[in-house]
């Protein structure tokens, strides 16, 4: 069954205009048809269409089901947006598919991209959430200067900074992550972090790590890091 997104469904029994149009004009659903709706906060609603309208489809809730994330920890990926926006959009889509709680675009000294439209990334995240049958929408922050992000991360979270230069000894991320721990990982821009930024991260308690022997592009590195946490947690649940 195709899922729709309505963040206010619990208090307002209507689909937003974009989903109403998709429901009525594209899928040609009619009154009496049943649909599934997620609110982005962990709830799935089984609903029936009362009045099919391309701008404001009215529904009635038949059943509400809790659908929390399958992963138990909180995962934050802080990454410098790529020069080409389509690669950042691809990353957001894939991160949501495999599971992430927060995505933070960070501004670094060597960043190729200084601004980003969060609204566009949020739309991609919503689509990926629905297609991957999830009910929790990750938080996507506005572009955040690196020092601001470093200061915002709790000491209770495992913190890692991944980079290419080896002037400071780096450890393998897969060996350093503690299964089940909430985690934040920093991924730098295409030109990598500057030495000053690495020092700032280390001073803030971030552990220097490598993702392995391969040299990865920014968006690939962010995805590999996120999936590493999931794989380790899944293996330790077996």
Short structural summary:
The protein has 238 residues and is of the alpha/beta class. The chain has two domains: 3-66, Beta Barrel (Ribosomal Protein L25, Chain P), CATH 2.40.240; 75-237, Alpha/beta knot.
Question: Would you mind describing this structure in some detail?
Answer:
With 238 residues, this protein is α/β, with parallel strands linked by helices. The chain has 2 domains: 3-66, Hypothetical PUA domain-like, domain 1 (Ribosomal Protein L25, Chain P, Beta Barrel); 75-237, SPOUT methyltransferase, trefoil knot domain (Alpha/beta knot, 3-Layer(aba) Sandwich), CATH 3.40.1280. The protein has 7 helices and 12 strands. It has helices at residues 17-26, 85-98, 118-131, 146-152, 173-176, 195-203, 218-237; strands at residues 3-5, 34-38, 43-51, 58-66, 75-79, 102-107, 139-140, 144-145, 158-162, 171-172, 183-187, 207-210. The strands form 2 sheets. Strands 5, 6, 7, 8, 9, 10, 11 and 12 form an 8-stranded parallel β-sheet that branches. It has a 4-stranded mixed β-sheet with strand order 1-2-3-4. The longest helix has 20 residues, at 218-237. The chain is elongated and about 65 Å long. The relative contact order is 0.15.
């Amino acid at each position: 069954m195709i899922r729709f997104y309505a963040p206010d469904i619990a208090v307002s029994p209507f689909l937003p205009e974009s989903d109403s149009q998709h429901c009525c004009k594209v899928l040609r659903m009619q009154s009496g048809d049943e649909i599934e709706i997620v609110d982005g906060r962990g709830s799935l609603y089984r609903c029936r269409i009362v009045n099919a309208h391309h701008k404001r489809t009215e529904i009635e809730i038949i059943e509400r089901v809790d659908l929390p994330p399958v992963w138990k920890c909180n995962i934050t990926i802080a990454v410098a947006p790529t020069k080409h926006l389509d690669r950042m959009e691809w990353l957001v889509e894939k991160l949501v598919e495999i599971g992430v709680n927060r995505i933070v675009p960070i501004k670094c000294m060597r960043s190729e991209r200084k601004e980003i439209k969060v609204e566009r990334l949020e739309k991609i995240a919503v689509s990926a959430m629905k297609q991957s049958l999830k009910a929790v929408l990750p938080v996507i922050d506005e572009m955040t200067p690196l020092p601001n992000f470093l200061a915002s991360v709790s000491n209770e979270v495992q913190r890692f900074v991944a980079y290419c230069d080896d002037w400071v000894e780096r450890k393998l991320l897969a060996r350093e992550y503690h299964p089940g721990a909430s985690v934040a990982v920093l991924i730098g821009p295409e030109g990598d972090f500057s030495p000053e930024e690495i020092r700032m991260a280390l001073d803030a308690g971030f552990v220097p790590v490598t993702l392995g022997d391969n040299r990865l592009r920014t968006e690939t590195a962010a995805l590999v890091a996120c999936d590493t946490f999931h794989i380790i947690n899944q293996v330790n649940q077996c």
